[in-house]
Amino acid sequence: MRNNFESNDHDIYSTDSKDSLWQKFRKLWKKLRITRWLIFLVLAFGFVFESYLLIGAKTTDISDLPAKLQVTTEFYDQDGAYAGEISNDSGTYVSLDEISTTIQDAVISTEDKRFYSHNGFDIIGIGRAAFGYVTSGNIVGGGSTITQQLVKNAFLDNDQSIIRKLKELFLAFEIEKNYSKEEILEMYLNNAYFGNGAYGVEDASQKYFGMSAAELPVEDASVIAGALKGPTLYNPVDDYDATLERRDTILQLMADNEFLTQEEADAAIATDMVQMNNEIANDAYAYPYYFDAVINEAINKFGLTEEDIMNGNYKIYTNLNQTYQTEMQTTYDDTSIFPTSPSGEPAQSASVMIDPTTGGVYATVGGTGEYTFRGFNRATQIARSPASTIKPLLVYALALENGYTAQSVIPDEEMTYGSGEATYAPKNWNFETVGEILLWDAVAKSKNTSAVWMMNEMGVEASLEQLAKFGIPYSEDDMNLTAALGAITPGVSPLQMASAYTAFANSGVRSEGYFITRIEDQQGNVVVEEQEPTQNQAVSAEVADEMTSILLSVYDEGGTGASIEPEGYEVAGKTGSNEVQESTLGNKDEWDIAYTPDFVLATWYGFDETTDDSYLWYGSESTSKTAFSAILTPLLQVSPGTAFTIESAYAEYNQLQEAEAAASESSSSEDTSGDDSNDSGNVIDNVIQGAQDFFQGLFGSGA
Predict the structure, then answer these.
(1) For residues 252 and 164, what is the distance between their CA atoms, to the nearest angstrom?
(2) Among 393, 394, 361, 357, CA closest to 380
(3) Residue 186: active-site member
(4) At what angle do helices 262-269 and 240-256 cross, to 10 degrees?
(5) What is the C-alpha to C-alpha distance for residues 55 and 642, in angstroms, rounded to an integer?
(6) Residue 388 annotated to the active site
(7) Residue 590 three-state SS
(8) What is the CA radius of gyration of the chain?
(9) 532: exposed, middle or buried (Cβ count in 10 Å: 0-12, 13-18, 19+)
(10) How far apart are CA 61 and CA 147, in angstroms?
(11) For 573-629, how does the pLDDT look when each residue is reduced to its tens digit (9 = 90+)?
(12) What is the pLDDT of residue 9?
């Protein structure tokens, strides 16, 4: 009994008699042979996936690879019509024997040092990329051969995924079977983008070094090779220091990879790097400053990169009006119309023409003389004093909002504001004052004394707050009366000023200037949705109309723009000039702004750097006024010619004066006709009183 009891006691407490959960799972795994099934499924999936990639590669037509490498981003105008393009097809194609061995060696050493020994993919490079994926969790560079890069440019998108990389690998293998190494390298070097609009090594060599690709020494060839990693960064134009560092890295890499001896690399590193920015002709890039502004907006507003645009096969739809643009460019082609410095150097100038109802930019030119791809576009990128063109925005719009009218009488006399070192005593541009002046006439004659007085009356802070409603920024440093004459930081561009003046042409609604309406990719997918105008109510519609009445007077007789307005046309706007400090010989900046119900045009003149020798000389045979007339006239001629529904304050004033003079003359005549004419005199008195009441109601009582 004892033995049985002991035996039973052992069975109760032992775990060996029962299978654990893990043991049951293992038995089930073995019984169902799950390991074999998993292996089978993995192999089956691998076979199917490999077949998919292989069939995809085999069925891809690679016979016209050169054609598929063509990359074209097209630009369309406001009507959806083709306007121009930027394309690698515009580059100069050269055969491999016309490309120096220094370029070939530098590119192979940098991009794919085992190029001549692999079959389209580099297992060592793939291993390095795989390691990067494991450690970072992202697909990283370093695994693609030159052939794979060619595949990506011809057949695939920029998606950084494993699927794309595998497709790239299989297609690279097919290309290697159908094209020689020399053909592959030739296609690669002729279709690569090297920054600043240069496609292919020939155009890149000419742009940055002024010589053909066949002549480049190794130190310059290394610059070309370095641009492949970042075309918009590693080039001598955009970042000299970064490019120099990149060049030296590549030269050392060529020595490490035995394309150069160490002595040759050291000698090349010791040389200075040439810095040129030669123009590369491209007839398809028909409206260069406009297209540059479009690219800049795509980058700055919508987050694309220059490389995306140059290699993305996009369709970019814009607000471009090709008729206006052509007329504007034709005028700017004649640099003799622009003012000069004392030495005869033509001034720079930039113009922007926009739709006042939407802000869509119809046309723009960003400079005179030589053009550089995506260079300095003065139409959108300058920051200069707006001079007197700021007066309607900063001073008089607020005055009209506060009860002043075009016919209000305001001071025109020299006054001193502030005290001590902070005193300010503005003078008129011609040093003349008349004591009192009608508000519209103060604007038309651009009276500085009146503008500063009015800003002081309205308040500095309130005036600058009004300016901001027109889209013109200001800083704390601008919180003083000198702002009334355009002394604001950092300054403005023609695009900003054109946008500001849309408020007067559009019932008080300011429309911000913009170029792009939408962007599509090569498959028709929308990259940037249809853009709506960005607008705000800057002033009331009533104030906008009265301001237009005032600004029409600027181009009437006696106004600062009287010599500009073409016969048979009517425009409103403002002129302005910013005199060179401590000089009476010329100006630093000059502005002309004109608008009709159809468009707003803003034009600036000056020099990129104002010096003792470079300024807008008063003695110049051509002036900004004659230049603006030459720019404005053809644009008016091809515009719809919509007439203003508002009469100029100058014309209204003249009508009032004529009516009063006629009434006064009649009154004097009746006074000498005796008592028999009392009834007639009463009639004339009634006419005079009626005219006075009419004009009083029209213009108000002043302030």
Answers:
(1) 32
(2) 361
(3) no
(4) 170
(5) 63
(6) yes
(7) strand
(8) 37
(9) exposed
(10) 16
(11) 999 999 987 767 899 999 999 999 999 999 999 999 999 899 999 999 999 999 999
(12) 47
- Cα separation of 119 and 176, whole Å? 6
pLDDT(462) > 90? yes
| 529 Cβ contact partners less than 8 Å away, ≥ 6 residues apart | 518
Task: Return d(Cα 310, Cα 186) in angstroms, integer.
Answer: 20
User: Rounded to 5 degrees, what angle do the CA atoms 623, 629, 631 make?
Assistant: 105
Helix ranges restricted to H, 506-623? 541-552
Q: How far is residue 178 CA from its own chain's centroid?
A: 44
Helices H / strands E in the chain, number of each: 27, 15
Catalytic residue among 111, 264, 307, 401: 111
Quote the CA–CA distance of 129 and 166 in Å, as a whole number. Answer: 13
CB 496 within 8 A of CB 437: no
Q: Locate 628 and state its tokens.
A: 């603006």
Reduced to 3 states (helix: H, G, I; strand: E, B; else coil), residue 434 is coil
CA distance 189 to 112: 13
CA 318 to chain CA mean position, Å: 12
**CA 379-383-389 angle, 5° bins:** 80
Give phi and psi for 348, each to the nearest 5.
Answer: -85, 160
Secondary structure letter of residue 392 according to DSSP? I
Cα–Cα distance, 521 to 258 (Å, whole number): 42
Q: What tokens appear for 230 in the block?
A: 């970042």
What pairs with residue 89 in β-bridges? none
* Cα(118)–Cα(24) distance, integer angstroms: 51
**C-alpha to C-alpha distance for 361 and 356, rounded to whole angstroms:** 9
Q: Which helix (H) or strand (E) holds 107?
A: helix 101-111
Catalytic residue among 100, 144, 385, 388: 388
CB 129 within 8 A of CB 143: yes
Residues in the chain: 703
Write the DSSP string, 150-208.
HHHHHH--S--SHHHHHHHHHHHHHHHHHS-HHHHHHHHHHH-B-STT-BHHHHHHHHH
Interatomic CA distance for residues 508 and 501, integer angstroms: 9
Phi first, then psi: give them for residue 605, nearest 5 degrees: -135, 145
Q: Which residues of 564-574 are buried (b: 16+ CB within 10 A; e: fewer)?
A: bbeeebbbbbb
Which range is least confidently modeled, 15-19, 99-103, 212-216, 673-677? 673-677
Question: pLDDT (tens digit, 9 = 90+) per residue, 529-545?
Answer: 999 999 999 999 999 99
